[in-house]
Specification:
Blueprint: E1 2-6, E2 12-17, E3 22-26, E4 32-33, E5 37-42, H1 51-59, E6 66-71, E7 76-81, E8 86-93, E9 99-102, E10 106-110, E11 113-121, E12 133-140, E13 142-149, E14 152-157, E15 162-165, E16 170-174, E17 178-184, E18 197-203, E19 206-211, H2 215-222, H3 229-238, H4 241-253
Antiparallel strand pairs: 1-2, 2-7, 3-6, 3-10, 4-7, 5-6, 8-13, 9-12, 9-16, 10-13, 11-12, 14-19, 15-18, 16-19, 17-18
Helix pairs in contact: 2-4, 3-4
């Protein structure tokens, strides 16, 4: 198996598979593939199968089904394109050393990687609405590829060193890093309504990857340029920044884009 990230601003992960090799992803991540790759649905990954493993993954923000891409007739290729401008990069997962990833960050992985429940906290209003702060845990053994939006900033936290991070900017961190959602009291903030201002305290030791342009913040920045509630509803239901950008540009330039 060989993997290569192509492009810069809007990268594509291209994975070359030999016969019998496979990768798995959440449903709907595929961009393109060769005919020699067989695509199928599965409820399990790695050595985690059965109802309990499936429910743990769903509780962690993942989908009910995973998609398996397997080369069955000679070499094959499967590609996954970034949903937002940013970066795609691999993390190596060994037994007993998993990673926490924001709920939209996991792109695909080799067959031995298991996505499961990480952490979930909802916020009552504003920008986070019904989504809240959700982390998925990647464990098992193998390579996982992660997609983060915007510029990526990496910190190596020493023992006892702490960063306070806006929840949307949390990208990936090793499970050696401890974390806690904290509230800054007494600050009226339109993003979080009555909950106050939430920050995530990340404490070392370990590596932390932060992202500069998460989708909810991008949506909030574009919202003033959306001309109608219908346009905003269509953009959100599409689930992609392209829907938001298209509606915004259409209103800015007085026509369809």
């Amino acid at each position: 198996m060989q993997a290569e990230v192509k492009g810069t601003t809007a990268p594509v992960l291209e994975v070359q598979l030999d016969t019998g090799e496979e990768v798995v992803s959440t449903h709907g991540e595929l961009s393109w593939m060769t005919p020699s790759v067989q695509m199928s649905q599965t409820t399990g990954a790695g050595n985690a199968h059965g109802l309990r493993a499936t429910l743990k993954r769903v509780a962690g923000g993942g989908g009910l089904l995973l998609t398996r891409y397997r080369a069955t007739q000679g070499q094959g290729m499967v590609a996954f394109a970034a949903k937002l401008p940013g970066r795609i990069f691999p993390v190596e997962i060994a037994a007993g050393s998993g990673y926490f990833v924001h709920r939209h960050g996991w792109l695909c992985a080799t067959a031995g990687v298991v996505p499961s429940v990480g952490f979930q906290q909802s916020f009552s209003g504003g920008l986070w609405g019904g989504e809240g702060f959700v982390l998925e845990r990647l464990e098992g053994e193998g390579t996982a590829w992660v997609e983060l939006a915007g510029e990526i900033v990496t910190y190596e936290l020493a023992v006892g060193q702490t960063l306070l991070v806006h929840p949307g900017h949390v990208g990936v961190f090793g499970e050696s890093v401890s974390f806690e959602v904290t509230t800054v009291p007494g600050i009226a903030n339109k993003l979080f309504g009555g909950d106050g201002y939430h920050l995530v305290a990340l404490s070392g030791p370990g590596t932390v990857w932060l992202q500069s342009m998460p989708l909810p913040i991008l949506a909030g920045a574009l919202a003033p340029y959306l001309g109608s509630s219908q346009a905003a509803t269509g953009a959100v239901s599409g689930g992609l920044a392209g829907g938001l950008a298209g509606g915004a540009l259409g209103n800015l330039f007085g026509g369809s884009v």
